[in-house]
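Colleagues,

Please find the record for the two-part complex below.
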Amino acid sequence: MSDHEQSKGGDPGVSRRNLLSGTAKVAALAGVAGASGGAGIASLTRQAFAQAVARRAQTAEVRPGDLDEYYGFASGGQSGEVRVIGMPSMREIMRIPVFNRDSATGWGLTNESRKIMTEGLLPATQKFLETRGGTFLNGDLHHPHMSFTDGSYDGRFLFMNDKANCRVARIRCDVMKCDKIIEIPNASDIHGLRPQKFPRTGYVFANSEHIIPIPNDGSVLDEPTKYWSVFTAIDGDTMKIAWQVLVDGNLDNTDADYQGKYAFSSCYNSERGVTLAEMTSAEQDWVTIFNLKRIEDAIKKGDYKEMSGVKVVDGRHGSPYTRYIPIPNNPHGCNMAPDGIHLAIAGKLSPTVTLIDVRKLDDLFDDKIKPRDAVVAEPELGLGPLHTAFDGRGNAYTTLFLDSQVVKWDIEKAKRAYKGEKVDPIVQKIDVHYQPGHNHSSMGETKEADGKWLLSLNKFSKDRFVGVGPLHPENDQLIDISGDEMKLVHDGPSFAEPHDCMIVHRSKLNPVIIWKRDDPMWEDIRQQAVKDKVNLEEAADVIRDGNKVRVYMHSNAPAYSLEKFTVKQGDEVTITITNMDDIEDLTHGFTIVRYGVMMEISPQQTASVTFVADRPGVHWYYCQWFCHALHMEMAGRMIVEPHAV
Amino acid sequence: MSDHEQSKGGDPGVSRRNLLSGTAKVAALAGVAGASGGAGIASLTRQAFAQAVARRAQTAEVRPGDLDEYYGFASGGQSGEVRVIGMPSMREIMRIPVFNRDSATGWGLTNESRKIMTEGLLPATQKFLETRGGTFLNGDLHHPHMSFTDGSYDGRFLFMNDKANCRVARIRCDVMKCDKIIEIPNASDIHGLRPQKFPRTGYVFANSEHIIPIPNDGSVLDEPTKYWSVFTAIDGDTMKIAWQVLVDGNLDNTDADYQGKYAFSSCYNSERGVTLAEMTSAEQDWVTIFNLKRIEDAIKKGDYKEMSGVKVVDGRHGSPYTRYIPIPNNPHGCNMAPDGIHLAIAGKLSPTVTLIDVRKLDDLFDDKIKPRDAVVAEPELGLGPLHTAFDGRGNAYTTLFLDSQVVKWDIEKAKRAYKGEKVDPIVQKIDVHYQPGHNHSSMGETKEADGKWLLSLNKFSKDRFVGVGPLHPENDQLIDISGDEMKLVHDGPSFAEPHDCMIVHRSKLNPVIIWKRDDPMWEDIRQQAVKDKVNLEEAADVIRDGNKVRVYMHSNAPAYSLEKFTVKQGDEVTITITNMDDIEDLTHGFTIVRYGVMMEISPQQTASVTFVADRPGVHWYYCQWFCHALHMEMAGRMIVEPHAV
């Protein structure tokens, strides 16, 4: 944290490098020229240079050999993955498969990944997938967010939701791999997701967007009055569901406060409609406030109903556990400001953002004030306000979907205007290209918001890039917000579809570069190897166990420890490989030709894959991650003896 | 082509924009300052500015609103996809799923994509996949290359290979979607792939890398003396196999000449070994030369053997159809120079690149000269030479895997040195980071090589990016080769694993931005709709046909034409949707919650998906491509009536 504090004043390592690159060199050059020219340069010229240097420091360019200052963890939307972006360069540095299938790493093919993808599914879903290969092939990943400690990122985990198949997943930030996926019962589709900020995560909050019968087993069908939504709190440490709250309306986006007292969810369908006309009929919907302490007490004292194995508290109108604050109109974004005070709910069909002072919520729950008394501002900002970000200096930045703009506005002025003062809270509007959804500021979802960068995740790119056919990329635009004026500095095309991104200073993360041999990811393998009396690190063994064959190898570039092995047609074969190279970046792979088998084995990692050897003949296996000058020669043969004819 | 010619001298649209951006502004500013300062600026200072502006023009930065000048079509390696890169910005503009499964577009889920993924598979593979969901989940895509007409890119198709499951695929450049995938019989794993350059593509050449028994049905197992490789020529227009050639040794990379007479493949395993020791035992391997005319004549006159339905010519030693030119040592890269004369084979374990003059090949085939007589240079360049690119100005650029360098060398000097003259062909070496594999120059695989940019696809990135765990990105480095000196301008992290990239000027492509309604991609749907008397463009129909239910909708943001539909548990349901929006970039999607169903429907596209409705209850479907301010409300219900209990 001190590193990050330091970096606010300019991380010395970064800025020194910046000073030696790019336009800084122009200034340096000119200085020399001025001196050798002997005539001196007018002070105004020097000022122009200084300005040029300052402008330079605000570009997205990160020169070869320099490092990005921030990580962006971006949703891959319907691609089902999480992306690690370097910022400000906006380069995609890594993809982390989560709800998708990934050929390169074998995500969805290896035993370790299949366990993660299946063990947290509900029994009915496991049964449903039995005839479908055992796992979902798709996901719709919307909201990746890091775990918090004391109101800021702690570098432990990322959490994210799958709207398509109603799941919540976790990524370990030390190795940047998904380690848990659970399915949420009683919910239709998980949309909004955010972690508890204080005292720590703690809870991960997740919204069921659409309303459905609970249970959704066919006993209730076309009777929408019997459809409901639930708010879910998951224990981020164990990835077990702590409790759910049954609510009126539906649930869209969510966030949590900095006091550990409340969570919030926007609702665009207070009507509980099932058609577009019904969902948009009311002029106001609401934000639902969840009182964490009261809900925890309810669980303790037994004021809940058990549904699909989960403790569900009734939070509908009249409940002591929730409050509903009216908001115009089909609101969407739900963003807690880093000041710990203000919650911004974007109006979507209303041109307003509604600002709630969370210090008033105790009184609201104690019925000392009315719901709308918690509102302290409602500035009219433009058409289609969707999400709001913050710079930690009292400004808010709201995306205007219909206007294709980001509007910067002053929170205090908006409050004064709400009280009737004639003051315009709008500081600046900047065009974005085009139709922005989420936006994000550097560290802006934490109490350490540093106001350097703003990312506008635009849903359309239209003419901003060379043509690539009917399917266009999105456009993630980087805006410099470090000065008084917003400046657009970079257009970043992206594949389907960043719904969300969190921007964390690199000092908050310390990923390992080589796996630890005792990593829990391959604990099952370890136990089986003990039973088979195999030392994984020296293995070159073929263990036959009925028609199950376990093949153990290790690898050192450019060779596997087995140059061939033989099995019988119909055997169930498990291949386990340990990559004994311990050099940074020396990843191996294992692919069997025409068998659909492929996996990643990074330095010191153990990985395994199981399949039925039902094709006879000679099948080469090879390393698919380029590892060595003799990489092409890193191969061997699986010989499958045919059934007797 | 004239656009491209023009752009060599500087596309006016691009350069005008460049002049108004970035450091150009510094110069402009300084000019004003100098004038108003009244003192004038020393001419040396002005020169420094001019240099700075010149340097600016060589950076990778493409400012917001400007377009890239080149497309890069990059292999996604073991990720199984093709990537469209904007160059010089190195931004990934689109992913095209090919051998992988893609959640976002429904590649592998829609009926249209599943047909492409399955219909070209061999019967034995179709049977093998029956219990595995019908399609492979993985692929190892190495070599994307564009179709040629008269020695340059013609913008029709891209072709690419799958090493993992032995397939060749095609992408239509008008819509940037894969439209054909075929599996290659008699081959182990397809590695090298290149299209015929002249008179047109024509043939697509594909190498079987490993040697296997033919047929590989289990009748021959651990008898490597009976293993062989085949060279395959595919008709790029029909995607049918034209013929194969049985060869000695194995086949690695391939290329074709500019005369339409020969194709070439490097061989690193002339030993026909099956272990690392065996494969590296000989000091020399070879490049195999294929005489296209003689092979075509052999097919005509019946000098072939039919194997797995393919006409296979015997091209082993002694054959009139091939020649084998010895090359030191386990050679890898096989690159035809844009001069139409020189073929470069990189030595890999030898520090040399062997240069062959293809004009000598007629004599070689007529036995007037010996194989090595076709060699005209063999410069010693450094350790681990893998691939060679060209600038059209007589220079070659070879990657040195072990030295982590790109070496620029002069072809004519190399030839003079080979004749014994004391001249050093090496012009410059530049460090790359780290371990380069393929490299590519702009338009460098065509007779229009323009010598502007070189891309070095490095297999390791190590410390070049912020840490992302044990699995590192690759590093695609962009090098400016427009001047006398190579200059490194950009580090581009990339996910697994660019093996290859072709760099084509944007004037060569003209993709459509909205689908044509009569596109052949959904011809099956069209025929079924006629039978069902449904107008796809106005559809809101549910057709029951036994236990098959066909649901037809169209979409206009923000609504599907059906707000709900009802089926019975166990029905086989086909959903067909036509996106009637005809606005650029207005893609819709269709996802059914907890059903693993997801697809893309771009403007004016029709797409379909089939599944069994075996989960009862209320299942929302929704649009997963953000389309409208009311996108969240674009949803409906699939009501699945349960079996009578």
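The mean pLDDT of chain A is 92.

Comments are welcome before we finalize the supplementary table.
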